[in-house]
Design a protein that fits this description.
The chain has 738 residues and is α+β, with helices and mostly antiparallel strands. Helix content is 50%, strand content 20%.
Length: 738
C-alpha cells in the first residue's frame, strides 16, 4: 500500500531526516520519502503498519501529519508559507531601532540624551531589553519549536536559532541584573557588552530569509499550479437534446460537450461533429495550433482557438491526461534522486555536530580571550550553520525541472529518471512509430519489361484493395481510381502476400518468397528495382498474372521530419544513437543511413529488443530507450531510463519513466538536455550548501581572528538566511530552460 501524507512543523533537512527515521521504525513500513520542499511524505507499507500508526510516529517525533484530500497530496497553496508580513515588518522596525541604539553611539550617530549609556546606563539597557523581548515574542515559534525538538533529542534549525538568540537574550538579561547590583561604573561597562541587538537581528534576519525562501519555493511549483488551473470550472453539454451548463465535476463519460472559440477542454474525448483549431502547447508543448475535425482526439486542458466542436467525453476527472500529468509531476516532486543521498546522510548528524562545534568553540575562546569572545564566537557558529540549503538543494531543482519539462511536453515520472537522463550516453530508438510515423506509402512503382502498365496497376489495385494489411492499404490508396477487376477468388497468404483469380487466371501479389520460391517465377528483371527499394528501407511487393511478371511496388514507412535533425543533435551532445527494429537487415540499413543513426540492430522481436538494451547498458553507459508500441514495453523496462512517445500505446506509456507528449523525436533531445541541466544544477546546489558550511563555520568559530576577521552574530544570521535563498534561486534558473 502506498499513501501520501502532509507533514507539518518541518523547518530544515534535519527535520525531514528525523521524520523519515521515525516512520521507518514502524513495523511493516518498507519505504518512506519525506520532501522538505512540498512538506509531503510518501510511505509504502503493509500490515502491521497502518495510517494511524504512521501518523502517531510522526507526532511522537515532534511533528504533525495527516492524509490530504485526493488530488491535493502536495503543498501547492496559492500563498507562500511566510512568517506574516505585518509581524515581520514590525520585527524589522524594532530590530533596526535596537541596532541603532546599540551601535549608534559607537559611530557618532545622535541618540536621545536620556538613553546615553554613560549618563543613563539603566535606561539604555532597559529599552534594549524591552525591544529585544518584544521581537522574541513575535518570533516565539523558534523558541517553542526549538525547545520541543531539543527535549525530544531531535534538534533542528529552530534549535540552533533558539540557542543563538536565546543565549544573547540571556546574556543581556544577566548583564542588566549585574548592572543593578554593581551600579555606577560597573553598569556603564556592562551596557557596552549586551548583544541584545544580535538576539533581535538573528530572529528577524532568519525570518526574512525564510519568507524569501518560501516565495521562491512557491515559484518552483508554479508549473503544477498552472496545470491544475487549465481545466475549466464549468462546461456546456448537450443532454436530452438541450444545451446546459454544468460543473466540470458533474461531467460523465459519454456526455457530448459543446466547445466554442475560447473554451478550455475539460475532458479527453473525440470530436463527433464540427471543425475547429486547438492550441495544445500547454499540454503537449506543440507550438503550432492543430486543426480538428470529426474523429480527431481532443486533450483536456487545451484551448479551442477557433471554430465550433462537439466532443464525446471519453475520460473525465482524475482519468484525463491532464490529471495524469499533474499526478506524474507530483510523484516526481515527492521522490528523491540518488544524488540526494549525500545530503540525507549529512542532515542526520548535522545539527548535533553544529551544537558540539559551538560548545567547543565557546570553551576554547573562554580560556583564550574570556567570556565575551566565547559568547560571540559560540553564538555565531550556532547561527551561521544552515541545514536548510542541504535539504532544498535537490528537490527544488527536481520540481522546477519536471514542471518546465511538462510545459515542453516532456513528462518525467521520478527524480531518479531525471537524474539518469542527465547521465545518458546511448539513446536506443524503436523505428516504426518513433523514428517513422508508422504510416506506409508507395515510394516507387516499376513495370516489368514487356508488361502492360495499366494491367499491372489494375491487378495490384484489385488484390490489395480487398486486404486490410497496412502495406495493402497503402498500395490501394496510391492506386485509387484505376479500373478494378472482378475477382472470383481472393485470399491472404500469411507472411507472404495475397492471391486472387480473375477470368480463370491466377493473380499474385507479395514478397520474393511467394513469387520466386513458391511459384518459381524469375524475378531477375526486377532485381535492380527491388534492391533500390531495399536500399532506402522500403519493402518490395511483386505482382504477377499467371506466369507473367507484371512489376514491383516499393512501399516504405514515412520518416518523421525532425528525426534526422534530432539524431544529429544527440550526436553533438555526445550520445550514440542505436535504431532497434524487427525489419529485414537490408531495409534497416537503408533507414539508418538515411537518418544518420550511429548503429542499428535489425530482425529483433520484443525480447530481442530488451536483450539489446541490456547489452548496451553494460557496455555503452546509461541507456535511454525510446519506443511507442506494446512490443517496446520490455525494452523500455530494461533500459536505465525509458521514454514512451505519448501518442503510443498505454502499455508503452505505463512502462516508461518519461512520456514525450507531442510524439516528436526532437523531444528526446529536450529530455536529455533537461536532465543534464538539472543534474548540473543539483551539483551546484549541493556544492554551495556544503562549501558554505565548510567555509563559514570555521570563520564563525574564529579561525581568522588573528587576521582581524570576525563575524558578529547578526552577520552570521544574515549569511545563513541567504544561503538557502541562494539555493532555491539557483534552482529557479531551470525555469528559463529552452
Amino acid at each position: 500500500m502506498k499513501r501520501e501524507f502532509r507533514v507539518t512543523g518541518m523547518s530544515c533537512a534535519s527535520c525531514a531526516a528525523h521524520v523519515e527515521n521515525a516512520v521507518r521504525g514502524v513495523g511493516g513500513v518498507s519505504s518512506v520519502v519525506v520532501s522538505l520542499l512540498t512538506d509531503s511524505m510518501t510511505v509504502e507499507f503493509d500490515a502491521p503498519a497502518s495510517e494511524e500508526k504512521i501518523v502517531s510516529a510522526v507526532i511522537r517525533a515532534g511533528y504533525g501529519a495527516f492524509l490530504p484530500e485526493p488530488g491535493k497530496e502536495l503543498a501547492l497553496d496559492d500563498e507562500p508559507q511566510t512568517f506574516g508580513g505585518r509581524r515581520l515588518l514590525l520585527s524589522a522596525i524594532l530590530s533596526l531601532l535596537l541596532f541603532y541604539l546599540a551601535m549608534g553611539h559607537m559611530i557618532g550617530l545622535p541618540i536621545p540624551p536620556f538613553l546615553s549609556p554613560n549618563a543613563h546606563p539603566y535606561a539604555f539597557i532597559s529599552v534594549q531589553l524591552v525591544l529585544a523581548y518584544v521581537v522574541a515574542v513575535i518570533h516565539s515559534r523558534y523558541f517553542t519549536g526549538g525547545l520541543l525538538a531539543l527535549i525530544r533529542r531531535a534538534p533542528n534549525m529552530d534549535t540552533l536559532v533558539m540557542l543563538g538568540s536565546g543565549a544573547a537574550l540571556l546574556h543581556g538579561t544577566v548583564a542588566f541584573i549585574l548592572a543593578l547590583i554593581g551600579g555606577g561604573e560597573r553598569a556603564v561597562a556592562l551596557s557596552m557588552e549586551l548583544y541584545l541587538d544580535a538576539a533581535a537581528m538573528i530572529l528577524t534576519l532568519v525570518s526574512l530569509g525564510k519568507t524569501l525562501e518560501g516565495r521562491a519555493k512557491r515559484r518552483t511549483t508554479d508549473a503544477i499550479r498552472l496545470l491544475t488551473k487549465l481545466s475549466p470550472d464549468r462546461v456546456t453539454v448537450r443532454r436530452d437534446g438541450a444545451e446546459t451548463t454544468i460543473c466540470t465535476s458533474e461531467l460523465t463519460v459519454g456526455d457530448v460537450v459543446i466547445l466554442k472559440t475560447g473554451d478550455r477542454i475539460a475532458a479527453d474525448g473525440t470530436v463527433v461533429s464540427g471543425v475547429g483549431c486547438c492550441d495544445e502547447a500547454s499540454v503537449t508543448g506543440e507550438s503550432r495550433p492543430i486543426d480538428k475535425k470529426e474523429g480527431d482526439v481532443l486533450i483536456a486542458g487545451c484551448l479551442v482557438t477557433d471554430g465550433y466542436l462537439e466532443m464525446r467525453a471519453d475520460k473525465v476527472g482524475e482519468d484525463t491526461s491532464l490529471a495524469a500529468t499533474v499526478r506524474m509531476i507530483r510523484e516526481a516532486a515527492a521522490s528523491k534522486a540518488p544524488i540526494a543521498r549525500l545530503a540525507d546522510k549529512v542532515s542526520t548528524f548535522f545539527v548535533p555536530a553544529v551544537l558540539g562545534t559551538a560548545l567547543l568553540t565557546a570553551v576554547v575562546w573562554f580560556f583564550v580571550s574570556g567570556p565575551s569572545a566565547a559568547f560571540v564566537h559560540g553564538v555565531s557558529v550556532l547561527v551561521i550553520s544552515c541545514p536548510c540549503a542541504l535539504g532544498l538543494a535537490t528537490p527544488t531543482a527536481i520540481v522546477t525541472a519536471t514542471g518546465r519539462g511538462a510545459e515542453r511536453g516532456v513528462l518525467i515520472k521520478s527524480a531518479a529518471a531525471l537524474e539518469t537522463l542527465g547521465r545518458v550516453k546511448t539513446v536506443a530508438l524503436d523505428k516504426t512509430g518513433t523514428l517513422t510515423r508508422g504510416e506506409m506509402k508507395v515510394i516507387s512503382l516499376t513495370v516489368a519489361p514487356g508488361a502492360d502498365p495499366d494491367r499491372f496497376r489494375s491487378v495490384a489495385y484489385a488484390l490489395e484493395s480487398r486486404s486490410t494489411h497496412p502495406i495493402a492499404r497503402a498500395i490501394a490508396a496510391d492506386l485509387a481510381g484505376v479500373p478494378d477487376l472482378a475477382l472470383s477468388t481472393h485470399s491472404t497468404i500469411p507472411g507472404k502476400g495475397v492471391y486472387g483469380k480473375a477470368d480463370g487466371v491466377h493473380l499474385l501479389g507479395g514478397n520474393a518468397a511467394l513469387l520466386a520460391d513458391d511459384m518459381e517465377l524469375d524475378l531477375s528483371p526486377l532485381s535492380a528495382a527491388a534492391d533500390a527499394i531495399l536500399d532506402v528501407g522500403g519493402t518490395p511487393v511483386f505482382f504477377s498474372e499467371g506466369e507473367r511478371l507484371l512489376g514491383v511496388v516499393g512501399v516504405g514507412d514515412t520518416v518523421r521530419e525532425d528525426a534526422t535533425d534530432a539524431l544529429a543533435k544527440l550526436r553533438a551532445l555526445g550520445c550514440r544513437s542505436v535504431m532497434l527494429t524487427g525489419d529485414h537487415p537490408r531495409a534497416a540499413a537503408g533507414i539508418a543511413e538515411t537518418l544518420g543513426c550511429d548503429e542499428y540492430r535489425a530482425g529483433l522481436l520484443p525480447d530481442g529488443k530488451a536483450e539489446a538494451v541490456s547489452e548496451l547498458s553494460k557496455h555503452a553507459g546509461p541507456v535511454l530507450m525510446v519506443g511507442d508500441g506494446i512490443n517496446d514495453a520490455p525494452a523500455l523496462t530494461s533500459a536505465d531510463v525509458g521514454a514512451a512517445v505519448g501518442v503510443g500505446t498505454d502499455v508503452a506509456v505505463a512502462s516508461a519513466d518519461v512520456v514525450l507528449r507531442s510524439g516528436n523525436v526532437s523531444d528526446v533531445v529536450t529530455s536529455v538536455r533537461l536532465g543534464r541541466a538539472t543534474l548540473r544544477n543539483i551539483k551546484q546546489n549541493l556544492f554551495w550548501a556544503l562549501i558554505y558550511n565548510a567555509i563559514c563555520i570555521p570563520i564563525a568559530a574564529g579561525v581568522l581572528s588573528p587576521l582581524g576577521v570576525t563575524l558578529a552574530p547578526w552577520m552570521a544570521a544574515l549569511a545563513m538566511s541567504f544561503s538557502s535563498v541562494f539555493v532555491v534561486t539557483n534552482a529557479l534558473r531551470l525555469r528559463r530552460f529552452r
